[in-house]
Fold this protein.
Amino acid sequence: MTNLQLKILAVTLMTVDHIGAILFPQMIILRIIGRMAFPIFAFLLVEGFRHTKNMKRYLIRLGFFALISEPVFDICFNGRVSILNRSNIFFTLFYGLILLLVVELYRNEKLPFLQAFVGTVACVFMVVGMDADYGLYGLFMILGLYMAKSFKAQAIVLAALNVGYVLILLIGGYTTVQVWSILALLPIAFYNGKLGKKVKQFSMYMYYPMHLLLLFVISRVMS
């Protein structure tokens, strides 16, 4: 699969997940299917970090869509607009990208340990403080997939994170379908490293807030 094909698959899975969350919460199968979306997005973020020619533009794009998507996300999942409550996935990806940049600069000895440590703590604090979608689980997944240099290593990272995350939730008395995200390894295994047909990034990113807005309107009509 090309990079574009993986993106389309991830967007499709995400849409199925949100249809389940917003319109049909009783249909757990939709949430199970949707669990594969984030690991693919995390994988694509790592690929983008490794191959982007303009890191500044990449960061600005993620930050911009995090901000414009937040009001719609809040209305859909929090019932009101508030950045202090659960925040959208673009924030997780944004701080995940910053974390990768910090780690890479430190590994190349371009960033002192203290600055790298402060940068890492800042990313963790922002993700936790904003209650960004997938939280530390998402941040560590991005970092883990970046540190893993082979598909086998990435499979171990994803499996370990899922087991740990699910165990923590179960100990806390919660149930989760997140364990099913391990199935994201199937399409990732077929990734060929090619970009595929070029499409405008703006349209791909803009789909996120637009599809949430549409689902919210449909939910109001159905209620």
